[in-house]
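Thread: Newbie trying to understand structure tokens

Hi all, I'm a second-year student working on a class project, and my supervisor (Dr. K.) asked me to get a predicted structure for one chain before our next meeting. I've only ever worked with sequences, so writing a 3D structure as a token string is new to me. If someone could post the tokens and maybe explain what I'm looking at, I'd be very grateful. Here's the chain:
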Amino acid sequence: MRPGLAGLAGLLLLAACGSSEPLGTRADDTSVGVPAPDVEGPITGGLRGRPWAGALQDLAPYDVVQEEYFFSGTAQARDREGVATGRSADYRSRILVQRPRDPARFNGTVLLEWFNVSLEAELPVMWMLAHEELLREGYAYVGVSAQVVGVSASPLALKAWDPLRYAPLRHPGDAYEFDIYAQAARAVLRPAAGPAPLGELRPQRIIAAGESQSAALLRTYANHVQREHRVMDGFLIHTWPGPIGEDVGVPVLMYLTETESAGITSPLGALRAVSWAGMIDGLGLAELPGAGPLRVPISEAPSPDHRWLRVWEIAGGAHGDGPMVTDFLAQLSRDLAAPLNMPLALKLPAGCVLPINQLDGGRSISAALHQLNRWIEQGPPPASQPRLARNSNGSLRRDAEGFAEGGIRMPNYAVPVGLNRGDTCTLLGSYRPFLPVGLRERYASAPDYRQRLAEAAMDNVAQGTLLAPEAEAYMRESEAINAW
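---
Reply by user tm_fold:
Sure, no problem. This is what the structure looks like when written as tokens:
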């Protein structure tokens, strides 16, 4: 009999049982070591009458409010390792807030995203990936304009996109990015002056989150600045590997794919490293003023799991996959004034003849966020997950069909209808669908395939790497596959 959806919900409930003293429950902000900025807003008007990178989704059914605020103060300059240099500068930047209107719907956690600027425009990647979990579970989301390229140093920067709305913004440069980001968190807790960006909501936990280039900077922040600022309650570091010190003091969940394990952003185990900055140099982009990627350190092998760290390695996953790229292009197409030319980083190299990866990392990152939030709120840490298996030279070990061994295996990888890989085609991986004859060789019938997929989904729910709503989505999608 096919496993029921009620069984999935029951497994999720069981997975959530067991708790100890919470790690992050803020009664006040007296222990925070970063100054509070002034806040202005909500911001309205401008040439376009809306904020850059606002939600694509209809927020009304969730009774979620979207507002934009400016925040200002004095930031300290830091070097690439997060060490203060002694310089300071005034700044004014912005945050984009999506929050439940009703305090009763708020789960107490703020996801504070460091906007990714690899494409020279601010992209809310973590919102794109995890918005379904954020909306249904009552999180507050705050996106932060932390880097100069997103504010003023690009043709796609805020001040170029709407010079009237964003005229007051002033960013002194990326040496100040760590403090600007931290002061955004401080504004969420309690601004020095001005309105509270979360309205009547009272945050208990702040999770710092970022993807790729932003994740690399957050790893530096976690290792070298967090102990000084003490403003974050946890970190969700998405698709950038590297060590996390055992003295970080707050939970960190590092989410990695095959791209970071064996592709262009991979250090190939502990053997050698690939410099992101070097890759940008090779593309002739090194002279872009204030470009965020130039402050990204080389990738390094992730640490073994320890008291404060859990690393998830997703078999078959890619740095960017089909659903993510669809959201990228939808946002850029809506927000850009001119017809969209696909950005350089999304163009497939000539040798990439297969479709880009279709594993859909948003489903597993929603589970990662859920696990991290529960860890911070309740403790103890979630169970460690299997790492991807490696050969002696650090490369991924694969079977005869090309499937990676080990790692977290999502239902559509454990019970596949095609091969997803993350170590091909730059950052976007590849997908090779099986022919009908191949499906018939692998599965006795369509019901056999659906039964096995449902069992795999339940296994993921039981291990905490998939949530019940996403498991249900896999089951619904399996109904459309009838190649037998």
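A couple of things are worth pointing out once you decode it. The longest helix spans residues 361-378. The CA atoms of residues 235 and 275 lie 23 Å apart. Feel free to ask follow-ups in this thread.
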